[in-house]
């Protein structure tokens, strides 16, 4: 651990503890609620002022035409770049600046960012304004110790991660901000805990399945054909064959929590027959045979599965039912798909952060994969950049919860780990 002391990174981070707290609090106090996407411009301007002062060249980029972008809710992003004394590789820290709704159950003001002992409370404290602040402090401390470093450091704060990232990282990736020619290492400081490295995530396929029938009077259902009964057969087939099949598959990916090491299928919604009336309606429903029934499925798949097989499995299931049920008709509509992403453990950013964790915390990191997706998907697929991980302070389970908080000590430890990572990547011996 002595090299950290000698080179002064530890002292620099310690000296910035108060600044780290204040910066985190300032970010939480700008309520960037998404949806609908509030105060994006304000938070980008705040970060622009901060990073310009630290010597970064800062761009504010609006994702014009992205989903959700409008005159009232423009999708603003901030990208800041600091050039070293000589050419070299670029390390990019990317954090999303949007936060989810407050929800119920808070015992504190969610935007007051109160400091109580070691904890800062507020919506976005861990997911992920604390992570953004940590990366900024790490970069500033590193630059103070090594003004002559080689390469470049980038910090971005991007919109809409909570709603898919299309007005944020996806937009920037389309514009070339994550191309391998420009950026070589990406760290996303999502709250995965200070001793864990998240290598990627499972894949996703969302689809709508609709069964068709024929409307008739409910007193003579034999004159119609119930789309709901057809859907019942679909669900029964899933219960009997598909769920056990998925349960029997296990990934080599270190997905947490444990249950997510299997592929999963959720039925997000089901609608059939007459549409629901508003709550104030006091009448009775009409007696009709349902001529349509729809479900939305959310299939999470493993790196060992491929999307075509995942889709074919559902089609085969529906075809089996069609063979034994007269008049069974169905349609499948794709809604969204994301490929699984997993960075190799030997990738330079993984190995370097792992070494830094060991140096600072004295323990080897735990490698994990996220059950759900995050912005790494866009960096991987659109940006074609594989050398990317999520690493940051904060406890994942607190994300999106009431009384969300982040530990100041965890942020300081992570900041030192990030600064040491920069030293190892940008200061060749
Ligand atoms: Zn997040």
Structure description:
With 429 residues, this protein is of the alpha/beta class. Helices cover 34% and strands 24% of the residues. The protein contains 11 helices and 16 strands. The protein has helices at 2-7, 9-15, 17-28, 40-53, 125-145, 169-174, 227-247, 307-324, 348-361, 376-381, 408-426, and strands spanning 57-62, 76-83, 86-96, 115-116, 119-121, 150-158, 185-188, 196-201, 203-212, 264-272, 292-301, 329-338, 341-342, 366-370, 388-390, 405-407. A hairpin with a 2-residue loop joins β4 (115-116) and β5 (119-121). The radius of gyration is 25 Å and the shape is elongated. The site of zinc ion has 5 residues, from α5.
Helix and strand arrangement:
Blueprint: H1 2-7, H2 9-15, H3 17-28, H4 40-53, E1 57-62, E2 76-83, E3 86-96, E4 115-116, E5 119-121, H5 125-145, E6 150-158, H6 169-174, E7 185-188, E8 196-201, E9 203-212, H7 227-247, E10 264-272, E11 292-301, H8 307-324, E12 329-338, E13 341-342, H9 348-361, E14 366-370, H10 376-381, E15 388-390, E16 405-407, H11 408-426
Parallel strand pairs: 3-6, 3-7, 7-15, 8-14
Antiparallel strand pairs: 1-2, 2-6, 4-5, 5-16, 8-13, 9-11, 9-12, 10-11
Helix pairs in contact: 2-11, 3-5, 5-11, 9-11
Bound molecules: zinc ion.
Zinc ion (ZN) binds next to helix 5.
